[in-house]
Design goal:
mainly alpha, globular
Length: about 475
């Protein structure tokens, strides 16, 4: 049995519990979006090329994608408050290393360490709310969490742009230190410990986590090096090692009694289909936002602050429309939203291909941002609801975690592979990259139409739909 407390949201303790989880999650999610804005400044200071900028993003996504499922299971076994605190402190120390990094190599390594901290604190933040608040207050507590984290995610790019313009890109990492300190103080004072006693006898899937991380690292290295050096010996060796490693990971997860990625989940066609939609769409999203921000600053002359505001409408649309999209999918079923949404997003990405030197924001950039944001808004809430509805109640948390891991992996590979296929990130390669991203999004819609046929309705959501912003998958609790 899980240890559950009944803290009321209307009390000071309840509000502080929500504050701790909002600040912790917001810190990790904010960092995953703000860094895009800093990439041109980082490249200028270190003389880093495209590969260095790719690794600045993918170093974080690599460890986060590989370890996020393990982080949730560690919280269940050893205590959610304990793992949340460890993740917060770890993230803060890694942020300090990022802030003082003397070279691009040190920055990339520090970003990978940041991802480890995020993988520990992110999955247990909602679990803390679910097990700490009184049952009748959990819906409102999660709604407050989603709204406040959404606001933090929305203002993140603009805040990052202002910090870079006013001081240095290093401030976007240094800002995490006082936030982390506040999280630790609040958590120690107000958040009670909780754990799943049934998980105490289960051994964490460390072998699976390690094999998954090494395999993803090998694939990422191979794709990024390929763009720099061509398909040389190290590229072929790393790609072969990555593929074989992932095959070994699948075999290992089939054999372990307490695997972090239960293979039985994918026997459900709708669950598999929803995750394939996630894979294609989030690869397109991550690659396009990575390249767009660099394009705006390096080739169109945008300041970091202006680049941050340029993509803000995407997050604002998600904040305003995700709840409506979730309710619409509950009425008509997920098939149409998960078909139309990716296609609309793909149209927006194809519109980005027209952005070049001298392009006017209001006539060429903003229309694509709005269309793309509308498509993403149609998808996010129904996608998570479909993932959860496709799994049995007792594994709903695992199903949501798997969907998160798939989204992070998609972002990791999208940033590595799309520039390779396009032949670069700037000049004539940028339109090609946007069209490739558009193709990925449209393909996701085709997969949604093909795999989500059947019963039209999904359960009407009993909790508000919420999302973590354009750069991150929705986190859901059941």
């Amino acid at each position: 049995m899980a240890v559950v407390t009944d803290v009321r949201l209307g009390t000071a303790e309840g509000r502080w519990v929500v504050a701790a989880t909002v600040l912790g999650s917001g810190m990790a999610l904010l960092d995953s979006t703000v860094v895009n804005i800093a990439l041109p400044a980082i490249g200028d200071e270190f003389g880093a090329g495209l590969a260095g900028l790719q690794w600045t993003i993918d170093g974080y996504l690599l460890t986060l994608a590989a370890l996020i499922l393990l982080g949730g299971s560690l919280g269940d076994r050893f205590g959610r408050r304990l793992v949340f605190l460890i993740g917060t402190v770890w993230f803060a120390l890694a942020s300090l290393l990022c802030a003082v990094a003397p070279t691009i190599e040190v920055l990339v390594a520090s970003r990978a360490l940041q991802g480890v901290g995020a993988a520990l604190l992110t999955p247990v933040s909602l679990a803390i709310l679910q097990t700490t608040l009184a049952p009748e207050d959990r819906g409102r507590g999660i709604a407050a969490w989603s709204g406040l984290v959404g606001v933090a995610t929305a203002v993140g790019p603009a805040l990052g742009g202002w910090l870079i313009g006013a001081g240095s890109w290093r401030w976007i990492f240094a800002l995490n230190l006082p936030v982390a300190l506040a999280v630790v103080v609040i958590t120690l004072r107000y958040v009670p410990e909780s754990r799943d006693e049934a998980a105490a006898g289960q051994r964490p899937d460390l072998a699976g986590a390690l094999l998954g991380a090494v395999s993803l690292a090998a694939l990422t290295y191979g794709f990024i090096r390929w763009g720099e050096h061509g398909a040389d010996g190290p590229v072929v060796a790393s790609l072969v090692a990555g593929v074989l490693g992932l095959a070994g990971f699948v075999l290992l997860e089939h054999r372990l009694p307490h695997a972090m990625l239960p293979p039985g989940l994918f026997a459900n066609r709708r669950f598999t289909g929803a995750n394939l939609v996630t894979l294609g769409l989030y690869a397109a999203l991550s690659a396009s936002l990575f390249l767009l921000v660099v394009r705006l600053q390096n080739e169109l002359g945008y300041s970091p602050l202006a680049a941050g505001f340029a993509t803000l409408p995407i997050t604002l649309l998600m904040l305003a429309g995700s709840d409506l999209a979730g309710r619409l999918a509950a009425r008509i079923g997920p098939r149409l939203p998960l078909t139309v949404g990716p296609v609309v997003a793909g149209v927006g990405l194809a519109m980005f291909a027209r952005i070049g030197p001298g392009a006017d924001y209001w006539t060429l950039v903003l229309p694509g941002v709005l269309v793309f944001g509308l498509g993403i808004t149609l998808v996010v809430a129904p996608l998570t609801a479909t993932v959860l509805a496709s799994a049995d109640d007792e594994v709903a948390g695992v199903a949501s975690g798997v969907n998160n891991a798939v989204a992070r992996t998609a972002g990791l590979l999208g940033v590595a592979v799309v520039p390779l296929l396009a032949g670069g990130a700037s000049g004539s390669a940028f339109p090609v990259a946007m069209l490739i991203s558009a193709g990925l999004a449209v393909a996701s819609g085709v997969v949604g139409w093909a795999t989500l046929a059947g019963p039209h309705r999904i359960a009407e959501p009993t909790l508000p739909q919420y999302s973590c912003g354009a750069g991150a998958p929705q986190l859901a609790s059941r």
